[in-house]
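Data availability (excerpt). The following record was deposited with the supplementary files.
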Amino acid sequence: MNRYNTYCPIAKAAEILAERWTLLIVRDLLLRARHFNDFRRSIPLITPAMLSKRLKTLEEAGIIERETFGNAGHVEYRLTDAGVELKPIVEAAGAWGQRWARSKLPHGELHPSTLMWDIHRFLKTEHLPERRTVLNVDFVDLRAMRYWWLVVQGGEVDVCLDDPGYEVDVSIACSLVTLTQVFMGDLSITSARGTGDMKVTGSRQLIKDMPRWFGLMPFSNVPLGTLSRRNGAGQ
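Predicted structure:
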């Protein structure tokens, strides 16, 4: 951990929270990630060794606690009261980033695993049938990790990179950047389909209801900020 060697509370917080990957791990915990592989799926570029190191640091700082279950040593991570108190900080950082540092979605910032894991988190299952519903995504511009499945049943959503073998209810075919734009709220489903950038086939009713059950990222409604100079003392 990098030290600022000062008593300043902001510096003390930054010593813990400003380490690379840390806020993303806290973000995931706030979104109910519990297992080591949950973080690996959400943050695919972090190495297992670095993830273990960051989790240990957060545990030592009293921000998370680790629980072990069963003889197999099944481990789950949960936020402590101190960790839960970080929620408004993470939300403010997300809103600020969307307003003032919004990504222009270069290829290097796009990853199908991250996107599909995020989509599964915010899928509005209450607007899907009570029976099992299977969604298939085909990233037409990819070779590796091109096909994905979301299996929804009982309010739970499973993400599959291998065909689960169930009948597909809705198929979505588009580029990785197109689905990312839709998820971020920068491109509507209607517009994407209208231009042909997204093709959706399957159940007519589910396709009609897609704007209701396809959840957007939490900061999708944050408008882009306009930079301006402020003049005058004290401003």
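Summary of structural features: The mean pLDDT is 94.
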